[in-house]
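User: Second chain of the day. Same drill as before.
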Amino acid sequence: MRVFLNPGHALGGDPDPGCVNPTCRLRECDLALTYGSLCGKYLEAAGCSVQLLQSHNLYGEAPGFPCVVDAANAWPADVFISIHVNAGGGRGAETFCYDTAGAGGRLARCIQNQLVKSLSPFDAGYKDRGIKAHPSFCVLRHTTMPAVLVETGFIDSADVTLLTQHGDDIARAIARGVTDYANFLASP
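Assistant: Same format as last time:
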């Protein structure tokens, strides 16, 4: 399986670091890159081919930078995963897809299940916020393969402990979600 990983926001945080927790100086772009890099290593160990691209040029809006959607489509990937961290004071993980009834919905369920199963034992307040259709996200709308956008937790809530101390668990959970999806496709 060919897996395209897109850690959210701009490489190095310039011009867009994503969500920021000013108290502990955490930036979404840094956490997402850590999770994506680790996840890529686990997927490669499982036999997947992986490409990783962190860029704020999602669909041509920043022409001086690599275009995420074009790179994923040109490779071509079998699945696309954009990795993010949420903000707004909530708790838990949620995974977005173009349509919950399609292949992207199946991939979203596999990843969401693994995230909640892996992280809730560390913190009972970590919530399963579910899978949600969000066809207006350009990385879900313009990719030609099943695609998801994963929000791993909230940078401005008690989730910050999980985000900083359990990054490896987050990366492993996303990778296991992908392999669960691949196993589903391979089953008769």
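Strands lie at 2-7, 20-21, 26-27, 49-52, 79-86, 93-97, 128-133, 147-154.

User: Great, on to the next one.
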